[in-house]
Amino acid sequence: MTHILAIDQGTTSSRAILFDRDMQPVRSAQQEFRQHYPASGWVEHDPEEIWQTVRDTCRDAAGEIRVAAIGITNQRETTLVWDRATGKPVCNAIVWQDRRTAEICARLKADGHEALVTERTGLLLDPYFSATKLAWILDKMDGARARAEAGELAFGTVDTFLIWRLTGGARHVTDATNAARTMLYDIKSGAWDEDICDLLNIPMSLLPEVLDCAADYGTTDLLGGQVPIMGVAGDQQAATIGQACFTPGMMKSTYGTGCFALLNTGDEPVASSNRLLTTIAYQFGGKTTYALEGSIFIAGAAVQWLRDGLGIINDAAQTGELAASADPEQEVILVPAFTGLGAPYWDADCRGAVFGLTRGSGPKEFARAALESVGFQTRDLLDAMQADMGVQAKTVLRVDGGMAASDWTMQFLADITGAPVDRPTVLETTALGAAWLAGMQAGIYPDQNGFAQRWALDKRFEVGMNAATRDRRYAAWQDAVGRTLSRP
Ligand SMILES: Nc1ncnc2c1ncn2[C@@H]1O[C@H](COP(=O)(O)OP(=O)(O)O)[C@@H](O)[C@H]1O
Ligand SMILES: O=P(O)(O)OC[C@H](O)CO
């Protein structure tokens, strides 16, 4: 038995990818599931659909092959609460993109609590993170608080929920990277924070045990026999691992529904002065490595909007060609604040805007504006990282995720950031990271150095745009954002 199964439970789909002894993906299965938008700014997933799609894709990907170990990576922050006796969720999962707790966050900020939260968790007081979503569930779901106080309920991010289901309720666990995204976890001491739990009235009995990224997470009979779960990391941290960003100063950016850039900062957490997040990159053998993270809520989702909202493309892959044929004289700018803006603005209330429209603006210009918005937003993050870290930040950017397949977008990214962009041969780095954690723990895959040496370049995008054009275009973006923010 030398195959490793990686579960990648993402925002729009669940994937299972089988890796062979040489860490090559050999089989995969993917299922999309429904997005529920019950009110403006609300986003939910049905936990049973998450579970069913994971279960089915795992069985499809594994087929008859006997799996040595399972690694799990997942959309982070998304919040679930379930009954310990029945495993039944008390309500839909509240997704990371959901802004329903903006008011709770505003109130906590007004009461002066943000400094403590940031000091302990490395995060900002924003609805993005699990803590206020969990508080909302306890407050709003009938009887939830009483049941929580009686010890009947369990909280978890998606990894925890999946492990609970996979192990038949035997394990209530998470890993340090997922814990770091709850806004309830002290990333320096490595423990749940009593003060923040008190502040939000969250009983600590709800919280899972926190383990290293490579550890014993229990076993599952899902694939027949008993298969151990041996690796867990939030998807952006798994991508950081999969991109082998193990040295301080190395940085990756993943382009899926959203975009998340992580810069390895080594053994010490770096507090950001530029509204980035301080987070855990990974934890091995009880030793924590930290990262600075910039989180953008809308990247590939802007392309989905071109397809599903505007109907100007049938397939994401058409966008690059359309953008390439856009009128070079027009400079349409899309600020895709569909669910507010993330780093470095953290404006939950603003909504998207388009600038620079003329009578000649059409699908091509919209397509280009959507792809460019991803580059502009990444530049915002890299500038913030540079300001926090000095010159170290503007090294090469390693990219991955579905949208990294777009050459046009990656070239614009290099042009507008002024830094080369490296795309590896394996774009499924998130799943690779999870597979490596499990395979390494199982003694099948190489150690950290051996794994890093296997990273292989597909294509480097060199900077092509001249500095004057770059500065002018970026200034136009900053102006457009300034006019979009709810509190300029
Ligand atoms: N060739 C492409 N050009 C532009 N965008 C693309 C391309 N291929 C995929 N995408 C976008 O990438 C996203 C899918 O990436 P993926 O990593 O699967 O996302 P997630 O894990 O968030 O579901 C979608 O939003 C899609 O619109
Ligand atoms: O599902 P993705 O790949 O868009 O990632 C979601 C992130 O983990 C949210 O923080």
UniProtKB/TrEMBL annotation:
UniProt superkingdom: Bacteria
What name does UniProt use for this protein?
Answer: Glycerol kinase
Q: Which reaction does it catalyse?
A: glycerol + ATP = sn-glycerol 3-phosphate + ADP + H(+)
Enumerate the residues binding ADP: 11, 15, 257, 300, 402
* Residue positions binding ATP: 11-13, 257, 300, 304, 402
Which UniProt keywords are given for this protein, alphabetically ordered? ATP-binding, Glycerol metabolism, Kinase, Nucleotide-binding, Transferase
Carbohydrate kinase FGGY N-terminal domain location, by residue? 4-242
- Does the UniProt entry include the keyword Nucleotide-binding? yes
What GO MF terms are annotated?
A: kinase activity
Function summary: Key enzyme in the regulation of glycerol uptake and metabolism. Catalyzes the phosphorylation of glycerol to yield sn-glycerol 3-phosphate.
UniProt cross-references to HAMAP family, sorted A to Z: Glycerol_kin
Summarize what activates or inhibits it. Inhibited by fructose 1,6-bisphosphate (FBP).
Question: Any transmembrane segments, and where?
Answer: none
